[in-house]
Amino acid sequence: MAAPLRPTSLRNLNLLLRAAPRFVQNQFRAHSTSSVNPEEVSHFNALASTWWDPHGSSRLLHLMNPLRHDFIRGCHASQPRPAPTSNLRYLDIGCGGGIFAESAARLPSTGSVTAIDPSPEVLAVAKGHARRDPGLQGKLTYLNTSIEELPQPKSIEEQYDVLSLFEVIEHITHPADFLDTCAPFVKPGGWIVMSTIARTWASWLTTKVVAEDIARIVPRGTHDWDKYINEEELRGYFLRERGWNSPRVMGVVYIPGLGWKEVAGSERVGNYFFGIRKDEN
Amino acid sequence: MKPSPAAVQPRQLGNYICSSCTHRLRRHRRSYATISSSGKPSIYDVVCVGGGPAGLSLLAALRSSPATANLKVALVESQDLSKTRDLSLPPNRFSNRCSSLTPSSVRFLDGIGAWKHVKRERVQGYTEMQVWDGVSGARIEFDWNAEQAAGGEGRPIAFMNENPNLTSGLLKRIDALGGVEIMDGERVENIGFGEESEEVDLSMWPVVELSGGKRLAARLLVGADGANSPVRAFAGIESRGWDYERHGVVATLEMKGSGWGGEEFKTAYQRFLPTGPVAMLPLPGNYSTLVWSTTPALAAHLKTLSPMDFIAMVNAAFRLSPVDLAYMHTQASGQADEFSWRAQHTEFDMQRVPQQVVGVQEGSVASFPLKLRHADTYIGERVALVGDAAHTIHPLAGQGLNQGQGDVESLIKTINYAVTHGQDIGVQMSLEQYNAERYAANNMLLGVCDKLHKLYAIESGPLVGLRSIGLRAVNSLGPLKRFMVSQASDGVKIL
C-alpha cells in the first residue's frame, strides 16, 4: 500500500519554481472569502452532463475511484490504534458528479457522507444520479456550498473521520489557506486525503505551504543535497506545528489495458494520493 | 428454468444507454407500468434466475464471503427445489446426469463450503485417461500415477459426480448459511424496468415479475437460466453458434468389475468415432456413466434397443471397427449375438478398453441435442450471464459445468471487489472485469472442442493420418503430455 513520504527530489523543486508564476499571479487576484475559483466552476459546469458516462471523459476517474478507497484503507491501517469500522463520517469537498461520494456511502463502514460542490449544475447531476440507487438514501447528503460557507462543527460528533479532496487541490487558488479552513472539520485522529493530477503533490505542498515558510528559513540558492534532508525535517516540523502527522503518499500510473496500478516512486512523475492525519490531541 | 420466451420483453437498448434513449425508455416504461404494475417491487442487490449448479454456486459463494454476506439476495427457480434438496438414491443407482468436475472446480466448491455437503461416497475421482482414434487406433494415455512415479503430481485428473448430488449439496450449504430468499416453483412471467418516484428512480433497474405475482427489482440480475435464458433475451444479448446434428446418449451402466485398476485407480475412456466421441466415465463401485455423441438417427436407434442389445452396442463402440459398428446399427435387434461373434474376430488390448458392460440401469438411457452457443457478451447494464446462459459447449471434454463454475468464481471475485470499493455492483463498469476474464477463456475452449469434434468426424483422407501422428507424437512426449494433463485438470482440457 502507501509508502511513507519520500524526500522531495531536485526535479520537484524545478517544477515548483516553474509553477511559481501562476501562484504569484493568483496572489494578486481580488481576495474573496471563498476558495472557489469562478473559472474552474464554469469549466466543471460544462462537464456535468458527461460525468456518469462510463465511456466519456470521466472514465479514468471512474477507474481510479477504487484506488481512493485502497488508499484510505492504507491510511487507516497505518494508525497505531485501529480506525473505527462502523459509522465513519465522510466530508467530500468538490464532489463533482459524486463518483467518490456515492462509493463512500455504499461502504458498510460508512455512517454518513456529506458531499459539497460549488457548481449547481454539477450538483444537480450528482443528486439525479444518486436517486437511481435506493441504497444511498439517508447516507448521502449533497450540499451546494463551498467549505467556507459550510457551518463549522460544534462538537467532535459533528466532525468528520475522513475529509476528501480528490482532484480538487489543483483547482484551488490558495491551497494553504484552504487547508487551514478544512482543518476544523476533521476529527482528532481523522484524515485529510487528497489526490491530484499535478506534476507532484510535493510541488503544491512545498510551493504553497512549505515554500512560504521555507522562503524565510532557508536562504535561496542553497538547495543542494544536504539541504533536502533539512527540508524534509522542516516539513515534518511544519506538519507537527500545525497539528498534522503521518503524511502518506501513493503514486499511481494508468496502464492501458490494465487500468490504474500503484507504482512505488511514481508520485514523483504522475498521479498521487496524499494523506495526513490530524493529531489526536 | 423454462419461462415462455415470448413473455420476455427484449430490452431495446444497446450496452450503453445515452441520455436521450433513457428519456424515451422512461416514457415507454411508464405506459407499460400502468398496465401490469401490481404495487412497488421489492428491492434486491442480486436476483439470480435459475437454480442449477451455476446459480446455486453463485448464491452459496455470495453468502459465504464476509464482504458480500450483507447483500440482499433472491433466487428464482421454476422447479420445486424440495426434490433437489433430498436426493435419496440407493448406492447402486446413479443419475444419468453426471459431470466431470475439475480439481479447480472442486477447490472452488470447497472454498465456498459446499463440497462437504456433497455425498462423497457417490463421487468418483479418476487418475487415468485413455483417449484413442476409432479409425486409426492412435492413442494417448494419461496416467497420473505413472506421472507421479516420474516425479509429477499425484492427484485425480477430475471427479465424476451426479449433477443432482452437486445441486443438493449446494442447496444444503445455502440452507445452512441462510439469508437467500428462495422463490421456487415460480416462473418468470416478464422482465421489465422499474418505476420512477419522488425519492428513487428505478427506471433503469430490471424488475422480474413472477407467476405468483411478486415483483423483484434487481441491482444486479444474474441469468443462470440455461441455454434459452430469459435474462439474456431481456438484456438483448445475442447468442450465436450452430447445432452439431448430433445427440448425446447418456446411460448409467453396470460393469463386470470396478475397473482394471480397482477402486483406487479409475480410468476414463474416450474413443473418437466418425459419428462422434463415445466416453465411459467411472462412477463408484462397478458403475460407469456413458456419453455417446452420435447422429440423431443412431441415437434414436440406440434408445429403441433392448437392454441386452444396448449393452452389446456400448461394448462394441469401444472395441469393434467403425465398419462393424455401422453394420450393427442397421440391425433392428440381435446386437448381443452379433457382438459376441464379431468380438472374437477383432483384435484389441483388453486392458486399454473399459471392462465389459453387463447391465444398464432401467430408465437411464436418454439423449439430448448437442450444440455450440456463445453469447456476444456476458454483461449488460445490471445484467450478468453465467453458465449455459452464456455458453453451450460440446460435451467431449466434459467442460460445460466447469466453465459455469469458472464463470461464477470470476463473477464473485468481481462483485467482491465492487462491494469492497463502494461500487454499484450492477453497473457495467463494475462488471467489465468479469467479462474480460471469462469471455476469451471460454471462447478458446469452445473453439478447441468444436475443432476436435470436426477433426474426428472425418473417416478417411489425409487428415486421419495427420491426427493420428498428432496423437502418437503427443503420447510419446512425456513433458508435453504432462503439460496437457495439468491444463486439463486446471479447467482447460485440450484432449
From TrEMBL, chain A:
<dbReference type="GO" id="GO:0031314">
    <property type="term" value="C:extrinsic component of mitochondrial inner membrane"/>
</dbReference>
<keyword id="KW-0460">Magnesium</keyword>
<dbReference type="GO" id="GO:0032259">
    <property type="term" value="P:methylation"/>
</dbReference>
<keyword id="KW-0808">Transferase</keyword>
<dbReference type="GO" id="GO:0061542">
    <property type="term" value="F:3-demethylubiquinol 3-O-methyltransferase activity"/>
</dbReference>
<dbReference type="InterPro" id="IPR010233">
    <property type="entry name" value="UbiG_MeTrfase"/>
</dbReference>
<keyword id="KW-0830">Ubiquinone</keyword>
<comment type="similarity">
    <text>Belongs to the class I-like SAM-binding methyltransferase superfamily. UbiG/COQ3 family.</text>
</comment>
<dbReference type="Pfam" id="PF13489">
    <property type="entry name" value="Methyltransf_23"/>
</dbReference>
<keyword id="KW-0479">Metal-binding</keyword>
<keyword id="KW-0831">Ubiquinone biosynthesis</keyword>
<keyword id="KW-0999">Mitochondrion inner membrane</keyword>
<keyword id="KW-0949">S-adenosyl-L-methionine</keyword>
<keyword id="KW-0472">Membrane</keyword>
<feature type="binding site">
    <location>
        <position position="167"/>
    </location>
    <ligand>
        <name>Mg(2+)</name>
    </ligand>
</feature>
<feature type="binding site">
    <location>
        <position position="170"/>
    </location>
    <ligand>
        <name>Mg(2+)</name>
    </ligand>
</feature>
<feature type="binding site">
    <location>
        <position position="94"/>
    </location>
    <ligand>
        <name>S-adenosyl-L-methionine</name>
    </ligand>
</feature>
<keyword id="KW-0489">Methyltransferase</keyword>
<dbReference type="GO" id="GO:0010420">
    <property type="term" value="F:polyprenyldihydroxybenzoate methyltransferase activity"/>
</dbReference>
<feature type="binding site">
    <location>
        <position position="166"/>
    </location>
    <ligand>
        <name>S-adenosyl-L-methionine</name>
    </ligand>
</feature>
<dbReference type="GO" id="GO:0120537">
    <property type="term" value="F:3-demethylubiquinone 3-O-methyltransferase activity"/>
</dbReference>
<comment type="pathway">
    <text>Cofactor biosynthesis; ubiquinone biosynthesis.</text>
</comment>
From TrEMBL, chain B:
<keyword id="KW-0503">Monooxygenase</keyword>
<dbReference type="Pfam" id="PF01494">
    <property type="entry name" value="FAD_binding_3"/>
</dbReference>
<dbReference type="GO" id="GO:0031314">
    <property type="term" value="C:extrinsic component of mitochondrial inner membrane"/>
</dbReference>
<keyword id="KW-0831">Ubiquinone biosynthesis</keyword>
<dbReference type="GO" id="GO:0071949">
    <property type="term" value="F:FAD binding"/>
</dbReference>
<dbReference type="GO" id="GO:0120538">
    <property type="term" value="F:2-methoxy-6-polyprenolphenol 4-hydroxylase activity"/>
</dbReference>
<dbReference type="GO" id="GO:0106364">
    <property type="term" value="F:4-hydroxy-3-all-trans-polyprenylbenzoate oxygenase activity"/>
</dbReference>
<comment type="similarity">
    <text>Belongs to the UbiH/COQ6 family.</text>
</comment>
<keyword id="KW-0496">Mitochondrion</keyword>
<protein>
    <recommendedName>
        <fullName>Ubiquinone biosynthesis monooxygenase COQ6, mitochondrial</fullName>
        <ecNumber>1.14.15.45</ecNumber>
        <ecNumber>1.14.15.46</ecNumber>
    </recommendedName>
</protein>
<keyword id="KW-0830">Ubiquinone</keyword>
<dbReference type="InterPro" id="IPR036188">
    <property type="entry name" value="FAD/NAD-bd_sf"/>
</dbReference>
<comment type="function">
    <text>FAD-dependent monooxygenase required for two non-consecutive steps during ubiquinone biosynthesis. Required for the C5-ring hydroxylation during ubiquinone biosynthesis by catalyzing the hydroxylation of 4-hydroxy-3-(all-trans-polyprenyl)benzoic acid to 3,4-dihydroxy-5-(all-trans-polyprenyl)benzoic acid. Also acts downstream of coq4, for the C1-hydroxylation during ubiquinone biosynthesis by catalyzing the hydroxylation of 2-methoxy-6-(all-trans-polyprenyl)phenol to 2-methoxy-6-(all-trans-polyprenyl)benzene-1,4-diol.</text>
</comment>
<dbReference type="InterPro" id="IPR000689">
    <property type="entry name" value="UbQ_mOase_COQ6"/>
</dbReference>
<dbReference type="InterPro" id="IPR002938">
    <property type="entry name" value="FAD-bd"/>
</dbReference>
<dbReference type="InterPro" id="IPR018168">
    <property type="entry name" value="Ubi_Hdrlase_CS"/>
</dbReference>
<dbReference type="GO" id="GO:0016712">
    <property type="term" value="F:oxidoreductase activity, acting on paired donors, with incorporation or reduction of molecular oxygen, reduced flavin or flavoprotein as one donor, and incorporation of one atom of oxygen"/>
</dbReference>
<dbReference type="InterPro" id="IPR010971">
    <property type="entry name" value="UbiH/COQ6"/>
</dbReference>
<feature type="domain" description="FAD-binding">
    <location>
        <begin position="44"/>
        <end position="441"/>
    </location>
</feature>
<keyword id="KW-0560">Oxidoreductase</keyword>
<keyword id="KW-0472">Membrane</keyword>
<keyword id="KW-0285">Flavoprotein</keyword>
